Amino acid sequence: MENKQGNSWAEWFTVIKVPILKITIGDQVFFFSPTRRIRTPSELLKVLKEDAWRIIDSEKPYQAKFYETARLFDYLNAQEVPTSATVLTAEAVWKQNREKARQIPVNFHVIFYDKMWNKEKEITSQSLIDIYRVKAEVRIVPSQGIPGYRQETIIEGKKLVRLHGLFATDNEPFTPEDDPILNELFKHASINSEVPRLKRLGDKKNLSGYMDITFFLKE
């Protein structure tokens, strides 16, 4: 039976990888998915579960356009603050074998506006939404104090996990156990005041991947 701890079996997975544009302007940090600015783990999960699939189904290049306010200058010396942009990758996998492999181009176009100086700064970047299928082994392990159990799989050398318990269903995706974007969102929680703090469970920041309490608070 699938719900017995210690069991393992092979499954087909659909992997989706979504570009996330990280822009740093001085001490300000912004994360943009193709469809929305990301401030919380729950918003990132919605992009992976909902927004990205609408783009994939259209099978057309996607224009990700944003207009945000930011401090572009050091107000003490009137010098423009340093700016950098990096494309990160958010990913999730579902237990299914129905999606064909394909790549959808995403063109980011972000304009920042400084109200005090009435100046704008434009940042552009190109990337891809990637979707493909892979076969991997699934393993059941204890959930470390949380009702239910965890399923784990390793794809391309990365461990992905999914919690089966009170708030999870068979439709929930597997997400990376140690996700760099999720870690970044928690790191900058003090900047984005909408991000609630989570209680730690041992050394764990949340239950499993993106499945954190902010998802339920935002619903």
Structure description:
Mean pLDDT is 82; it is low at 1-5 and 192-219. It is built from three helices and ten strands. By secondary structure, the protein is mainly beta. Strands 1, 2, 3, 4, 5, 6, 7, 8, 9 and 10 form a ten-stranded mixed sheet that branches.
List the keywords.
219 residues, mainly beta, ten-stranded mixed beta sheet, 10 strands, elongated, disordered N terminus
Summarize the structure.
By secondary structure, the protein is mainly beta. 15% of the residues lie in helices and 45% in strands.
Gap from first CA to last CA: 33 Å
Number of helices: 3
Quaternary status of these chains? single chain
The sequence of SSEs as H and E is EEEHEEEEEEEHH
Give the fraction of residues assigned to helices.
Answer: 10-25%
Proportion of strand residues = over 45%
- CA radius of gyration is 19 Å
Overall tally of structural domains: 1
The dominant shape is elongated
Major beta sheet summary: 10 strands, mixed
Q: Based on helices, strands and strand pairing, what is the structural class?
A: mainly beta
How many strand units?
A: 10
Write down the overall mean pLDDT. Answer: 82
- List unreliable stretches of 5+ residues: 1-5, 192-219
Give the topology.
Layout: E1 8-25, E2 28-32, E3 37-38, H1 41-58, E4 62-69, E5 83-95, E6 102-114, E7 119-142, E8 149-155, E9 158-164, E10 175-176, H2 180-187, H3 213-218
Parallel strand pairs: 4-6
Antiparallel strand pairs: 1-2, 1-5, 1-7, 2-3, 6-7, 7-8, 8-9, 9-10
